[in-house]
Write a structure and sequence with these properties.
The protein has 420 residues and is α/β, with parallel strands linked by helices. The chain is 50% helix and 15% strand. The protein is built from 13 helices and twelve strands. The strands form three sheets. The chain has a five-stranded parallel sheet with strand order 2-1-3-4-5, sandwiched between helices. Strands 7-6-8-9 form a four-stranded parallel sheet, with helices on both faces. The chain has a three-stranded mixed sheet with strand order 10-11-12. The longest helix has 47 residues. It is flat and about 130 Å long.
């Protein structure tokens, strides 16, 4: 009679062992949870994102500078994903370098003394000139990417090391050739420029090209250093035989200043002649177009280089892009105004202000509706074919029944039918 007692003792032992295992498992779980929590609290923080300082020569609101920023942010994202981006505007259009460089250097020294950026992105000439003067004081070991540098020669970069970037250059020759091709009746190129040093330099570059076009029978008329009213009066007198090349109108001889697009509209709204330019900040404000230097594409190209460097690629492995990333750009409204077809402009041109057709504007909905109509048409056709086939089968069945009934009724001998 010991057997039941033995069974009870064995069951009690198993229950005790199970309780011990469960207690051990709970203790182990609590221990691991504590270690994980301690690791989260006391573990090393994640490494900081790389830091990029963008030094912009001009001010926010200046069209070219705003386009450069757009190009940079297209590569890095609006929030600078995985990169801490700081933008510093030098504002040298309103505060000349000789007065602003020294105070700016003191401000940057205070801001970045404790933590240096991992990369400098310099936009336009004054930013480059500033860093050439203050790099050793402010950012001695920081690699550099530049964009928007005019008249770039290797000698200009000679004092600097660990840098790369993209040059800026405008294409007067290609723009004029295209303008004369699109307006074959034109025999006169009228240039508009102002009293600023940059416009005078641009006009001097054009003068070097004039002999080439003069051999083709093209005349040149310079409207330079005129007050706005006098300039517009001269522009109103131009006819179909003229093309206007807008080199910039930022300041009148009496010192009145104009924003980039304001100066463009001052020219385009005063003349019936087609107006061309070599900078994209004029596009959409009355010019036909041209092979345009673009702040957006300058900033974008420089940002691509910067992204590679921040990812670990040596600066020495990224060559300077000496060819400016200019684009053929046109305004569809001006093309229509002067009777120019899209087939006449270069392929891959950027065309703004295009009239969007109903299909282009509602493409997803039109395609979806078309797909539904197609499916319904296929289903309707399938049903029609099925109904037609059934009707034919029914007619064949009726005909078969009719023949067998006639055979049965007209038979003169008995017919036996066996069910299997």
């Amino acid at each position: 009679m010991d057997f039941p007692y033995a069974m009870d003792r064995h069951s009690a032992f198993r229950a005790f062992s199970l309780r011990k295992a469960l207690a051990f498992f709970c203790c182990l779980t609590l221990l691991l949870g504590g270690l994980l929590a301690a690791g989260k609290v006391h573990g090393a923080p994640p490494p900081p994102h790389p830091r990029m300082l963008v030094l912009l020569s001009y001010h926010q609101g200046y069209a070219w500078t705003d386009d450069e920023v757009r190009g940079i942010l297209e590569i890095f994202g609006e929030n600078g994903a995985q990169v801490d981006i700081a933008f510093e505007y030098m504002d040298t259009k309103r505060f000349p370098p000789e007065h602003s460089f020294a105070p700016l250097a003191e401000i940057l020294k205070q801001r970045y003394a404790t933590r240096q950026p991992d990369l400098l992105l310099l936009c336009d000439d004054n930013a480059l000139d500033f860093i050439k003067q203050y790099r050793q004081t402010l950012f001695p070991d920081v690699p550099i990417v530049f964009c928007g540098i005019n008249n770039l020669e290797p000698e200009r970069l000679a004092p600097l090391t660990r840098l790369t970037g993209v040059a800026e250059d405008f294409d007067l020759k290609s723009t004029l050739e295209m303008a004369l091709k699109l307006h074959p009746q034109a025999r006169q190129v009228v240039t508009v420029s102002d009293v600023t040093a940059s416009c005078k330099a641009n006009l001097q570059r054009l003068r070097k090209l004039q002999p080439f076009f003069q051999r083709l029978g093209v005349r040149f008329l310079e409207l330079s250093d005129l007050e706005p009213e006098a300039l517009q009066d001269r522009l109103r007198q131009l006819g179909e035989e003229s093309i206007v090349l807008h080199l910039g109108y930022f300041r009148s001889p009496q010192g009145k200043t104009f924003a980039t697009r304001q100066g463009t509209r001052l020219v385009t709204e005063a003349t019936r002649a087609p107006v061309y330019s070599v900078w994209d900040w004029s596009l959409g404000h009355g010019i036909v177009g041209g092979r345009l230097a673009s702040g957006f594409y300058q900033g974008r190209a420089a940002a691509c280089m910067a992204k590679e460097i921040l990812a670990g690629k040596p600066v020495s492995d990224i060559p300077i892009q000496w060819q400016s990333p200019n684009q053929w750009m046109f305004d569809a409204r001006q093309l229509k105004r002067f009777g120019i077809q899209l087939a006449q402009i270069p392929e891959q041109s950027v065309v703004v202000n295009r009239e969007i057709s109903f299909f282009e504007r509602n493409r997803p909905y039109v395609l979806s509706a078309g797909a539904v109509v197609l499916l319904l048409s296929v289903a309707t056709l399938s049903l029609a074919i099925n109904v037609l086939a059934r009707r034919r089968a029914e007619q064949r069945l009726k005909e078969s029944e009719r023949r067998y009934r006639a055979l049965y009724e007209e038979a003169t001998e008995g017919i036996l039918i066996f069910d299997e």
